[in-house]
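We keep the chain:
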Amino acid sequence: MKLLKIQRLINLLGLSLLITLPVLSHGQEASAKIAYVSLERILNESKIAKEAQSKMQNEFGQREKEVRDGIAKIKTEAAQLDKDAAILPEADRIRKQRELADHDRELQRKQRELIEDSQRRGAEERAKIFERANQVLKSIVEQKKLDLVVQDAAYVNPRIDITNDVLSALNK
């Protein structure tokens, strides 16, 4: 019984030695080079992101205006209907309520389509930006011989932040 316990202890010690040896030898090599890049800043400050935002505004601006105008028109019509409801014949009031409800449904449909189209196009544009940023980042990683690039962190020392390098390369 005691012999089994001793064998287990020896096996555990041997296993732990096997696990720690690579870590110890790896720690003796050159330290890892770590960097940080802020995707949020790239999406907000890069020239290609600003161009994409402008393109999206041109593409969807008119539809957004139509939806805003439609909302204002429905609110005005609803207020007028509330005001005139007491003096309108019931048939006219019901007809106007139905028309107003139909306009509202149509406007909601347009608004949903606008949101879906805008989100889809925004995702396409972000994907293009990320693809280009990743190409630039890879070249910076190779150039600086980095081992790890972190994109999200609780704290970042400005010394390892390479976001400005990525932004300047993207803006060329």
About this structure: The domain at 34-171 is CATH 3.30.910.20 (Protein Binding, DinI Protein; Chain A). Residues 11-28 have pLDDT under 50 and may be disordered.
